[in-house]
Automatic annotation (TrEMBL):
It holds the Pfam family polyprenyl_synt. It comes from Plectus sambesii. InterPro entries: Isoprenoid_synthase_dom_sf, Polyprenyl_synt, Polyprenyl_synt_CS. The keyword Transferase applies. Keywords: Isoprene biosynthesis, Magnesium, Metal-binding, Transferase. The lineage of its organism: Eukaryota, Metazoa, Ecdysozoa, Nematoda, Chromadorea. This is Decaprenyl diphosphate synthase subunit 1. Coiled coil: none annotated. GO terms for cellular component: mitochondrion; transferase complex. GO terms for biological process: isoprenoid biosynthetic process; pheromone biosynthetic process; ubiquinone biosynthetic process.
Amino acid sequence: MDFLKRCNGSTLCYFTKRCQRACFSALAYKGLLPESMMDLAYGSTSHTVRRIAPQIPSRRSCTTTLIQEQPKSKRELPQFVQQHLDRLQLEVTGALAGTANDVISFGVHRPAGAVETPSNKISFELQEMAKYYFSQGGKLYRPTVALLMAASCSHDRMLETVSENQYKIAVVSEMIHTASLVHDDVIDESDTRRNRPTVNALWGNKMAVLVGDYILAKATQLLCSIGNAQVVSIMAQIIEDLVKGEFMQMGVRDSSSEARFLHYMQKTYKKTASLFANSCKSVAVLAGCNENIQRTAFEYGKNLGMAFQLIDDLLDFVAQSATLGKPAGADLKLGLATAPVLFAAREYPELDRLILRRFSESNDVQKAWDFVLNSDGLRQTRQLARQHCEEAARLIAFLPNSAHFGEHLTDLAMSQLDREH
């Protein structure tokens, strides 16, 4: 029984824990294991994660799902918010086709009798490729956050509307997000997104980079049409953070677990949470709010964005590919150590070597996958996400119009914990 020997003075080795959990799993499967000992069978994530089979998961049996609480009735969005979202996708397409102020231009059509020149032919091709992403029907989550925050920052408690400039922030937030997806797919060499081929898979990497740049250029034109220098500066910070976050993701080389986790959290803010935070701050500025309210709006968006990405990283391990719209375990295959992996490494120091070489050797991805699912990493990731959700919800009370729209912002924050994709 050499495999039962301790690897060091404090922790049992990985194979020992596998054997232990396999034995207790068999007892649990037969109904012979008391509820109080279920953690010995499935690990301390058993309260939040259900495994399909009662044995140590293999690559084929890793289709784990989050155990959901009793489903809550979904609160309908305010009518004026839904109306803005209904027209947003068409108006984004119009913005891509027309000038910065031509947000009400529907669709992209070649003018009747237009003379085709090399210049406008390229323009039409770029527009069609840009439209490809927007036609896939995303969740429009970022615009929803911006519109609800705009309403919550209104000083007119009886007015259920947002200004045209605040609406433009919602449109720009979705355009920046989509451009970042196009660029991410090139960097990650992704072939699918939302269960459809990516732009780079259809038209190649060079064209995809140009499409992403084109969307950003149109977003910038629309942003400048607001005519508020402070807002332009705030929203420009998002693009700077996206670039810096990508560099951070590619360049992590920290050897200590604490430094790696700090690096991960900073990268997560720049790549994901900055867009939420700065969009919320922008609509607060446009509402004429003071600096304290602007900071509150920023912090709400930041915490919401951090929770959003933490749940995304958790779902990479527990959701099925068809639900995610991309292959499960994609982050590990890209060499990325996300929160579940970093938490698991505290339990299994053997993971450190795999993280430092970015899971590049044969079977590294499989080993890391098993380490995570047999650790407390998923539960700790979910708990950290919960802390950010609760902090976001706490901040809502400080917004001027929270009595009317605070419940919707609270729903957006806490619903992160129930997401399946």
